[in-house]
Amino acid sequence: QVQLVESGGGLVQAGGSLRLSCAASGSISSIKVMGWYRQAPGKQRELVATITTVITSSSTNYGDSVKGRFTLSRDNAKNAVYLQMNSLKPEDTAVYYCYAKTLRPTGFFAYWGQGTQVTVSS
After folding, report:
1. Is the model's pLDDT at 53 over the cut of 90?
2. How far apart are the C-alpha atoms of 112 and 15, rounded to whole Å?
3. Are 30 and 12 in contact (CB under 8 A)?
4. Chain-wide mean pLDDT for the chain?
5. Which of 12, 17, 78, 122 is most buried as measured by Cβ atoms within 10 A of its Cβ?
6. Are 20 and 9 in contact, with CB atoms under 8 Å apart?
7. Which residues contact 112 (CB under 8 A, 6 or more apart)?
8. Which residues sit opposite 83 in a β-bridge?
9. Is the pLDDT of residue 57 over 80?
10. pLDDT computed for residue 116 by the predictor
11. Which is nearest to 66 in space by CA: 122, 118, 113, 7?
12. pLDDT beyond 80 at 56
C-alpha cells in the first residue's frame, strides 16, 4: 500500500505561481513513477507531469499544455515530488491529483492522492 498526501493548492491570479507538494508513505520501494494529473470540470483527467523515481537516473514527462511553464522535481530522501507552476492561466484551473505507479509481483498498480484544488482567476 502507498499513501499520498498533497498540499499547496489554492487561488492565484493569472500569471502567478503555485507550488504543489506530494509526499508518499508506505511501500516506498515499490514506487517507480510519481507525478501529477489534473481534472477540470466536465473534462477527462489529463497528464500534467511525471518523473521516474530510480535513484541513479530520472526521466520527466510533461503534458503539452504545461511544457515550459511547469517544473516537476523529486526529493528521494523525503519520498516527495514538487510541482512548480509558473505563468498560470485560467485554463490551468482543475483538481490536481498526485499519482504513483508501483510495481507489484502481479504487475503495475496506480495510487492517487485525494486531490487539491487549483483555481486561476483571470
Report:
1. no
2. 28
3. no
4. 94
5. 12
6. yes
7. 4, 97, 98, 99
8. 20, 72
9. no
10. 97
11. 118
12. no
Q: Residue 18 and residue 15: Cα distance in Å, rounded?
A: 10
Pairing of strands 46-52, 60-62: antiparallel
- Which residues are paired to 11 by β-bridges? 119
> Strands 107-112, 2-7: parallel, antiparallel or unpaired by DSSP?
unpaired
Q: CB of 13 within 8 A of CB of 121?
A: yes
- pLDDT at position 58 over 80: no
Rounded Cα distance between 60 and 70, Å, is 11
Cell of 39: 481534472
Pairing of strands 60-62, 2-7: unpaired
CB atoms near residue 72 (< 10 Å)? 22
Q: What percentage of the chain has pLDDT greater than the value 90?
A: 86
Residue for cell digits 504513483? Answer: 100
